[in-house]
Amino acid sequence: MIRRPRRSVPATVVAVVLLALSVLAATAAVQHLLGYDPIVSPQALTTPVVGRAWNDPVTITAGVIATLLGLILLATALRPGTPTVLPLADDPGTGPEHTDTGVSRRSLRKDLTSTAAAADGVSAARLKVGRRRITVTVRTPVADTGGIPEQVRGLLADRLDDINPARRPALRIKASTKRSS
After folding, report:
1. Cα separation of 43 and 59, whole Å?
2. Low-confidence residues of the chain, pLDDT below 50?
3. How far apart are CA 119 and CA 113, in angstroms?
4. Cα separation values, 126 from 37, 111, 115, 149, Å
5. SS3 breakdown of the chain: % helix, strand, coil, rounded to 5?
6. Could you tell me the CA-to-CA distances from 142 to 25, 109, 136, 180 in Å, in that order?
7. pLDDT value at position 181?
8. How far apart are CA 43 and CA 33, in angstroms?
């Protein structure tokens, strides 16, 4: 159970381009029916391409650009995104009737951030949940940050044991002293 985000950027780009072309065509058609000069006349659109051959450099360049744009949109749409829900490990006693469970990336980040911030000597914590690694940056008012990363690592390891993700991410802890204002 790995839920991935929808690919809304390529869909939005295509939708906006098609909407703009549709509005332009509808406006030109209504203006033509009412007897006004259209915003964009059909002759103005067809004049640049009417006399061109298929092997004309302008035609080939336009075709290559359109093909590349289509391939970029297709690759963007097909590439898997970062999972929004991370699967949890199955309980060993559930047998064949197990339930797929998961935790959202945002919930995991908030939970682990509050766990890291609860460590002794930590004044603030920032956390980033990546695909294979969790990066934690803690701030401390203490000048010597020697034991703080190990303490935070132990707290986060215990919390990850409680959560029990299917794939255990590596922990990277950075500690910095709080700057005086």
Report:
1. 18
2. 181
3. 10
4. 60, 11, 11, 13
5. 50, 15, 35
6. 67, 25, 17, 11
7. 46
8. 16
